[in-house]
Amino acid sequence: MRTSVLVIGGGASGLIAAGSCANEGVETLVLERNEKPARKVMITGKGRCNVTNNCTSLQELISNVPRNGRFLYGAFSRFMPADVIDFFESRGVELKTERGNRVFPVSDSAADIVDALHGYAKSRARIMHGRAKELLINDGRVAGVRTEEGEEIFAEKVIVATGGMSYPGTGSTGDGYELARQAGHKITEIVPSLVPLEIHEGFCSDLMGLSLRNTTIRVVDTESGKTVYTDFGEMLFTHFGVSGPMILSASAHMRSMKSGKYKIYIDLKPALTAEQLDARILRDFSENTNKNFINALNLLLPKKLVPVIVKLSKIGLTTKVNQITKEQRRALAELLKGMCITVTGFRPIAEAIITSGGVDVSQINPKTMESKLVEGLYFAGEVIDADAYTGGFNLQIAFSTGRLAGLSAAGSIIENRESCYE
Predict the structure, then answer these.
(1) How far apart are CA 212 and CA 199, in angstroms?
(2) What is the rounded distance in angstroms from the CA atom of residue 363 to the CA atom of residue 249?
(3) Res 169 pLDDT > 80
(4) How far, in Å, CA of 210 to CA of 92, rounded?
(5) Average pLDDT, rounded, for the chain
(6) pTM score of the predicted model
(7) Residues forming CATH 3.50.50.60 domain(s) in the chain
């Protein structure tokens, strides 16, 4: 079988790459291992699909990509969030912008995004079910792939858009890394990102299911003593530790993970200074002066959190409020402004939203997404070593790199054809 451009992977980056390429009049084939394409897109944003982030500046976009953001300058500048929004709305998908500039379909259904992507690709390109196992490379130039069944598909250009290793049930099992290695590419360490965290302190399991809103966290690297991340928003206690939007974003800043390297300080009352909080506690205590300590915090904290704070405060739970000293009260305020938990590790990569690590960007041309090692080989999406925070930024990476790879592959073929006629 022959085609001009072969796209390996029918996810977000692969479908937009295929459609962009075929739209230039270049024969394009998508090789997708699943029966249905874009399975991972279907589960993003808890099935609502946070399709992009409606930020307006290129610098803001790059600042939300802590891993190799500058590498994406060319891809982002050619396909910004406004372009993504126009892409879907011009195909009948009405979008809305929510808190944090997160963009979702008005229908709150990821299926609408998948249908638009699938329709864009299949109206211009062919989509074939199969799994690529080996790149065909001749004299430093890609020539196609050999599938799992042994079939050879020859192509002038090959775009690897296979995703990472998160949510393997959707087909992201690291195939692209092996294909890249066959071409001589370096693969940086593969670790989970935007992933829940396992915590040492046992009280997290006691708090399982408790969601804290309007809370601040500060992540400290215990080896350097430096604060590596701060955030304000929502987090969730689980049986293994913590999760939620702030925690997922915090995980993107935790490099060279090992047990005890990172501590998280939770400010349960960020709207109050330590002095203001002490005054608030004093007022509550004055109204409950003859009560036991454990019964005097119900207006200050969620019910589930009260026994944990009491234990951490080291004030006896049956201590009468009027017996609590000024020093104990101020220590309680400090605890509420900085409850500490110790990170022991990431949850398994299968539970991560995205994969951190991948094809080394130093070996990819940022202006085209083409390999610097093998002519005609391109990369797009999560297989590349670039990842971002939550909020639609990772799908934006997929769309921007996919479109650039597709247009670059098509442009190279068209240019070669035109030169043959000169």
Answers:
(1) 16
(2) 27
(3) no
(4) 39
(5) 95
(6) 0.88
(7) 2-191+356-421
CATH number of 2-191+356-421: 3.50.50.60
pLDDT at 422: 54
Closest CA to 55 of 90, 78, 84: 84
pLDDT at 171: 74
Name the pLDDT band for 289 (thresholds 50, 70, 90): confident
Task: Tell me, letter by letter, the H, E, C secondary structure of the chain.
Answer: CEEEEEEECCCHHHHHHHHHHHCCCCCEEEEECCCCCCHHHHHHHHHCCCCEECCCCHHHHHHCCCECCHHHHHHHHHCCHHHHHHHHHCCCCCEEECHHHEEEECCCCHHHHHHHHHHHHHCCCEEEECCEEEEEEECCEEEEEEECCCCEEEEEEEEECCCCCCCHHHCCCCHHHHHHHHCCCCECCCEEECCCEEECCCHHHHCCCCEEEEEEEEEEECCCCCEEEEEEEEEEECCCEEECHHHHHHHCCCCCCCCCCEEEEEECCCCCCHHHHHHHHHHHHHHCCCCEHHHCCCCCCCHHHHHHHHHHHCCCCCCEHHHCCHHHHHHHHHHHHCEEEEEEEECCHHHCCEEECCECHHHECCCCCEECCCECEEECHHHECCECCCCCHHHHHHHHHHHHHHHHHHHHHHHHHHHHHC
Quick one: tokens of 79?
């396909």
Domain span(s) for CATH 1.10.8.260 in the chain? 196-346
Cα distance between residue 396 and residue 80, in whole Å: 8
Determine whether domain 196-346 maps to CATH 1.10.8.260.
Answer: yes
Phi/psi for 158 (5° steps) reads -130, 130
> HSE (CB half, 13 Å, CA atoms) of 260?
1
* Cα–Cα distance for residue pair 275/281, rounded to 1 Å: 10
User: pLDDT tens digits for 328-377?
Assistant: 999 999 999 999 999 999 999 989 989 999 999 999 999 999 999 999 99
Count the residues in the chain: 422
- Look at the block and give the residue holding tokens 């897109």: 41
For residue 395, what are the CA distances in angstroms to 37, 174, 380?
A: 15, 18, 11
